[in-house]
Amino acid sequence: MNAAEMRSRERRLWRIRARMSHVALGLLALLVFAFLYLPLLVTALFSFNDGTAMVFPIAKFSTRWYHELFGDAQLWGSLKNSLVVAAVAVVISLLFGAGTAVVLDRVRFYGSGVISSLMLVPFVIPGVLTGLALALFFYWLSVPFSLTTVALGHVTFVTPVMFFLVWSRLQRMDRTLEKASMDLGANNLRTFWHVTLPGLRWALAAAALLGATLSFDEVIITYFLIGNQRTLPMEIWTRIRFGFTPEINAIFTLVVAGSIMTTVLAGLLWFGVGRQRRAA
């Protein structure tokens, strides 16, 4: 076998190994996605089951449980509570998180790096410990558990999301626009309102959507801080203790669909702005 034939054989072997690697990676990705999303698909499928038994094959497909869901006042009341909690948590977290990001990005002082690192703490501490600590703190202050304490509890883990998304956007902003504004006579406040804030609007929108999704789905911290009222995840958790019903499958499907759409929209806002900036 001459040198040319050997090189040709080596190229064929390399292409075979490359194809095998691609097939193996594809199968691995397929298994990962099946593990993550197959339970969601099965649950959504059973929400259209006309009967109460969760068994295959499904005898008859129906929207019966969605009709019953829309007539369940208790579930809709808990949904309203979840939306109120998420809205309050997002507003407070935007003020705290975005404000802290702007200050740490624009003002350099001793210890600013430590403060940025401390924003990671809520992601490191388990939710059980955070919920317990907040429950003890509110008990010490003699604050009764309610939707207010739940919203304040959600602020503890939504604020870091706001901070890092806004701070990351600030790191990529063109500072020459702000300098030009100040050279033209605008003060710091006017420059921030007319130059910096418009540049952050999509990052703020993405952070708000992602924060609302995280708050809406939170269970652990809510469990420690909830009073007589219930949020939607707590209502679902209470009901499934006595067994799954197709009605729970229906509300689960709607919540998951809403969460996925909100997260995708936040991602499109965030990464879409990044591509526009790079293209410009």
State the CATH superfamily name of the largest domain.
MetI-like
Kindly state the number of beta strands: 0
Strand % is under 5%
Low-pLDDT residue spans: none
User: In the CATH hierarchy, what is the class of the largest domain?
Assistant: Mainly Alpha
- Name the CATH architecture of the largest domain: Orthogonal Bundle
> Which topology of the largest domain does CATH recognise?
MetI-like fold
The topology string of helices and strands comes to HHHHHHHHHHHH
Count of helical segments? 12
Helix fraction bin: over 70%
**C-alpha Rg (nearest Å):** 25 Å
- End-to-end C-alpha gap: 55 Å
**In one word, what is the shape?**
flat
Task: Provide the residue-averaged pLDDT.
Answer: 78
Based on secondary structure, the structural category is mainly alpha
* Major sheet characteristics: none
Number of domains: 2
Key traits:
280 residues; mainly alpha; MetI-like fold; 2 domains
Describe this structure in words.
- Helix content is 80%, strand content 0%.
- With 280 residues, the protein is mostly helical.
- It folds into two domains: 46 residues; 216 residues, MetI-like (MetI-like fold).
Concise overview:
The chain has twelve helices and no strands. By secondary structure, the chain is mainly α.
